[in-house]
Amino acid sequence: MKVFCLGAAGRISRESALDLVQYSDFEKITIGDYNYEEACKVARWLNDDRVDAVKIDVTKVDEAAEMMKGYDVVMDGTQITLNGISTECIAKAGCHGVNLNGFGEENQWDQLFKDAGKACVPGFGMTPGTTQMMAMHLANQLDTVEEVYVSHGAFRPFAFSKSITETTTYEYDPNLKSRVVFEDGKFIQVPPFARPREIDLPQPYGKTTQYIIPHSETVTLAQALKDKGVRLIEVRGTWPKQNMTLVRGLYDYGILKNPVVKVGDTEKGLMSIIGDYLVNSEEGKTTELYGYALHVEVVGYKDGVKKQGIIYHTHPASDGSVEGWEGLRAYTRNVGIPLAIAAEQLAKGNVKGTGILIPEDAFEPELIFKELERRGIYMHESWNNL
């Protein structure tokens, strides 16, 4: 088997590539990135005979697709704004594909994947991805489902990379149409900081106030659970307190609208300028607490009894007590590892269809959990009668 690790010079996807080196059966692992110098650094860091590095530009679709041909799967770690183009490259190369984001730009290439007999799963990291597995694991134990609450705490700096800064500003864009909840059969658009809810995350994170975010779980779970009668799906998230304070201020002052301002002879979006500053500042690149915390709650009925299932995850601490999980890597490995697991499952043919697949239709939750446990990432489940 061969895997093309697209965008793996990035801070998150290089962790996915490391996971493939440590755990997978791939015979060839190619690091493909526009930043060839950084891709070579990653290849040297991985220090494995199966790894090589190439320069690739996904905006040159035909050329990029030709480079990908012959690989079993493309593990796509490119940023949100490139996913429509990168997925086109993967589809035209005739490979399986998986990416981290899953914001819908991939769907237009569904037929190309079907024609090639291949599958593409947009959005498989911690969230989206692992969160859908957690929700389905609980929902599959119920006869009917009424409510689903997906929550996460992403404890990382505001701007440790440009793509993360882009994700932050994207999710809190005041005009974003995809920030929705699913309620009584309809998707309802909500503004930033809508529907605050306190979520009790495991230590060292603790109780956090979380708000609705524009993640694909809202849409995919509505599709996956339609036969169980689901009537409410809410997806929330939070970042470290200082990040949330900054984003709230940017929102309140209208800066998240990214108004164009003139600096010298150059016109540029104000939020873009702030993003550039944060990427190059100590404040933008550090935080007090690192890691990830997923929390999913499902309410429904089993044998006529109303039940509440809760599942959350834990991972090795970021305090240096576990090698390889120090500081920021406690966050980046959490995101990168599920992507690697999904890539190998696709390459092995362990999927339930072809074309563009939502995570719920692609993978068995328990298989994903088993693989996560091998890496020291554990699920914790409890049930209550209501």
From TrEMBL:
Saccharopine dehydrogenase-like C-terminal domain location is 125-377
The residue ranges of the Saccharopine dehydrogenase NADP binding domain are 3-101
Which species expresses this protein natively?
A: Candidatus Blautia pullistercoris
Which superkingdom does the taxonomy of this entry point to? Answer: Bacteria
Q: Cite the source lineage.
A: Bacteria, Bacillati, Bacillota, Clostridia, Lachnospirales
Q: Which PANTHER family match?
A: CARBOXYNORSPERMIDINE SYNTHASE
- Name listed for the protein in its UniProt record: Saccharopine dehydrogenase NADP-binding domain-containing protein
Q: Which residues are in coiled coils?
A: none
